[in-house]
Design goal:
The structure is a single chain. 34% of the residues lie in helices and 20% in strands. A hairpin with a 4-residue loop joins strand 3 and strand 4. The C terminus is likely disordered. 21% of the residues are buried. Helix 1 packs parallel to helix 3. The protein has 91 residues and is α+β, with helices and mostly antiparallel strands.
Amino acid sequence: MGITLYRLEGCPFCEFVVDELDELGLEYDSVWVEGLHSKRDVVQRVSGQRQVPVVVDDEYGVTMSQSARVIEYLQTTYGDADSPDDVETPA
């Protein structure tokens, strides 16, 4: 159990999610999917649609697509709000 990322080789939106997972230091499994939408049956089974990226987070029972939503979820769920990058310095 953990985080699984369904992704397509060469997909820039998938790479945005990979970058966020790596930045947060999260371990995850990658499942590489077919290039043709009609062949992405595994994505269809887990998310109800064939678009990637899709993240499945077993710990929280979350399955979601769309890179911006996934990144926001990862930051909210696993990010450290007290990290120096998140603290605004007074002007």
